[in-house]
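A common beginner's mistake is to predict each chain separately and then try to dock the pieces by hand. The better habit, illustrated here, is to supply every component at once so that their relative placement is modeled jointly.
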Amino acid sequence: MTDVDVVVVGAGLAGLSAARDILAAGRSALVLEARDRVGGRVLNDVTADGTVVEVGGQWIGPTQDRLDKLAHDLGVEQYPTYNEGDNVLVYRGRRTRYRGAIPKMPPHVLVSIGLGQARLDRMARDVPLHAPWAAAKAADWDSMSVETWIRRNVPTDGAKEMFRLGVTSVFSAEACDISLLHFLFYSHSGGLLDRLFNVADGAQERRFVGGSQVIATRLADRLGSDAVRLDAPVRAVAQDDDGVTVGDVRAQRVIVAVPPTLAGRIEYQPVLPAQRDQLTQRMPMGSVIKVMCVYDEPFWRADGFTGQGTSDEGPVQITFDNSPPSGPPGVLLGFIEGRAARQLGGQPRDVRRRAVVECFSRFFGPRAEHPREYIERDWSGEEWSRGCYGAFMAPGVLSQYGPALRHPCGRIHWAGTETAELWCGYMDGAVRSGERAAAEVLPLLR
Amino acid sequence: MTDVDVVVVGAGLAGLSAARDILAAGRSALVLEARDRVGGRVLNDVTADGTVVEVGGQWIGPTQDRLDKLAHDLGVEQYPTYNEGDNVLVYRGRRTRYRGAIPKMPPHVLVSIGLGQARLDRMARDVPLHAPWAAAKAADWDSMSVETWIRRNVPTDGAKEMFRLGVTSVFSAEACDISLLHFLFYSHSGGLLDRLFNVADGAQERRFVGGSQVIATRLADRLGSDAVRLDAPVRAVAQDDDGVTVGDVRAQRVIVAVPPTLAGRIEYQPVLPAQRDQLTQRMPMGSVIKVMCVYDEPFWRADGFTGQGTSDEGPVQITFDNSPPSGPPGVLLGFIEGRAARQLGGQPRDVRRRAVVECFSRFFGPRAEHPREYIERDWSGEEWSRGCYGAFMAPGVLSQYGPALRHPCGRIHWAGTETAELWCGYMDGAVRSGERAAAEVLPLLR
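With all components supplied together, the output reads:
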C-alpha cells in the first residue's frame, strides 16, 4: 500500500492544481491518471512537420487569472490568437466579410440579436455563481430549454439561427438540450456572452507557446514523478472512519477531479447519497470533433482574413486561424459540434475530411481545398472524457441537484471544471476547482 | 470458465424473460445478478404479521399481454385493485369525494384538463412507437420540456397543477425534467393517458396474489438454479471476434438487461460507440419513495372510500388501497415522487413517516393517524437501480440518440423496460424487451 495524505483522481488541470496546493502545504499527494498522459481534455498533437497544435482546450482570455498565473509560474508564454483583418460570414449561401464583432446581416436580424443578447446578459447577472438555484427565477428558467427561450423571445429566423449556433459553439450541445438556467449560469460564470464568443477581449484571446498541454506536463513535472501515476484508472473508491482506499493507495481524503459522468461510474463504498448519484446521471458531456487542416501558408492572411468564419451551414460552422506563432504552416481550425458531431462521428475519417475541406473552402476559397494534412480529434469517443468541452445540464437539473455538485461526500471531495464558479467549463475553471478542493481538504487533514 | 451460448446481465423481468426464451430454444443461458435476489425493481416485502406487500412495481392492466401470459404460465393469480366507493381529492386545502375518474373541481379547470388531455393524446398517437424520432414533429416536441407545453397550452392554474401531478405520478420526475417527445412516446407506448392514470381499465387495474415478485422468483425457479447466479455484479464486458467474456463466463452473445444508467457504468472492451455511451449519460432514473402504512382494518372502505386519493399538496400526492386480497390488515399505499423524493430522501425515516401519516390523515381522516406499521422503500438509494420507476429523457435526447437505445453493439444486445416499444417503463415492457432481445440473439447463435 502507498500511504499519502490526499489521493487525487485525474491528472487534468484540476487534479494537478489540487495536488500542487496539497504538496505546497507540506502534505503528501498522489495523482492517479487513467490515461498514459497528463492533461485530460487539454492535449497537444503535432503535424507531420513537427508543428504543435492543440486538439483539446487551448485558449486563455481576460479574467482567467488562475490559469494565467499558473502558466506564468511555469514559464509558459502566451501570444495573441491571430485576429487581423476581416471575418467571414456565410449566411443563406452568401459569403460576406466584416470587421469586428458585428457581421453583415439584415438590420432587423442584427437588432434582434442585440436585444436578445442584452436580455440574456441581464438575466445571467441575476444568477448567483455560488448558488444558481437561488436565483429568484431559478424554477422558471430551469423549466425550459434554451431553445424554448429562443423561440419565444427572438423574433427573426436569422437571429434564432445565430443564437443556436452561439449556444452550440459554447456547449457543443444543441439549444434544445440545455436548461436556460444552466446556460445563464455558465454565461455569467465566464463574464457574459461577448466574452464567451469573442477573440478580442474574449475567451479566445490568447494561446500558449508550445501548446496548452505544456501547462499540464510542466505542472506534472514540478510535482515530481512520485506524485503522478499514469495508466492507473480508478474503478473503485472506498471510505471508512479513518480514510479512503483507492486501489493500492491509502489516504485521508480523496479529490475526484474528473467529469461528472466519469465520477459517476466509479464504484463507491459505501454507496454515495442518492442526490449525488442522480446528479451524475444528469450531467452528460457535449459532443465535439475538433478538426484542423494544415496548409503551406496561412493564405487567408494575405487575403486580409482573420481565419475566423461563421456559417449557418455545417458541419463546420465556426473556424479560427490556429497557425503556430511562427506563421507557417497555416493551420485552419474548425469545430464539428453537437448534432453534427453525432452524425459525423460514426462516419469514416475520409467522409469527415471531405466535409471539413468543403466547409473551409466555402469560407476561404479554393486554396482551402487541398490541405497537406488533416488532423481531427473526436472527444466523444475518448474513454476517459466521453465528450467535450464539458458537461451541461438539461432542464430541471441545476435547480434540483445543483447543491450536490461540490458538496463533499464524507472524505470524498469534488473538483473538475464543471464544479467551478468562475469560468465553469474552461481551463481556468479547472485550475480554480483544483485550488478550491485543495483548500477544502487541507484544514481537514490530521 | 463457464461456457454458455448467452450470458444475461440482470435478473429482473427483462433478463429472466430473455433467458427463458434462450433456454426454450434449446440453447444455454446464464443470468448474472448483482443483488442477492431476483426481480430487480419488482420486490415483495412483508409486514410484521406476515402480509405480503409490494414495494416495487406491482400492477397489471389491460393490453399488458406479455406480463399477463407470463403470470398465467407460472400459475400466479391476479385480483382486482380495490376500487369500490369514492375517491378523494384534496385541492386548495379542501377535501371532496367523487366517484369515477372526474374529480370535483371548478368546471373551467375540468374543461382545460379535458382539452389538454385530448390534445396530448392526439399528439401521442403521432409518435411512432418503433421510431419516435421519426414523428413529423419530433424536433419540435423534443425541443421543449413537458412543463413548457403545460405553461403554453393549459390556461388554468388548477389544470396546470393536475397535469404536473399526472406527469410526476407516471415518471417520478417533474414536468420540467422531461422532454415532451419522450412523454408523448411513453404515453402512446402505454395506451394513452387515461390508461396510464386509471385503476378501472388502466395500468393499476389488477394485482398479483403473493405479490408481483413471485413472478420473478417462480420464473427463476423454472430456469433452474444453474441458470441464475446471484451476488454476481457485472463490472466489465469484453467482446472479440469469437464471443464475449463477462467475469468468468464465456458466451457467444450478451444481453444487458439493466437500466441504461447502470449499463453505462459497465466497462466495455472495446469501448462502445460514442452514440451509445452518450445515450446512457442522458437517461437518468426518476426519484421515488414508495411508502405504506399498515392498519388493523382497511377502515376507509367502511367509510365508502376506494383508498385512492389525489392532492395538490405533498409529499404524498397519490394514494391507493394496497391491502392484501384477504382484506385485513388495511394497507394504505402512497408515493413520494420527483422533487419531494429528493427533498425527503435525505431525511431521517421518522421525518418521512410523520409526513406520510399527515398526508394519509388529510385524505382519510384521523383514523389514519396511528398506523401499526410503516414501510418504505427509497429506490434512488438502491445501488442496483439508482432510482425508479424508470429512466426518462430530457429534451433533445430521444430525437438525437433514440436509435442507439436498442441497436446492438457487436455481440452486446440491450434489454430492459426502457427499450420496450409497448409499455415502456412497466413490468410488461420489461418482459417484452427480454423476449425481443432473445429473438434478436437466437438466429445469430452458431
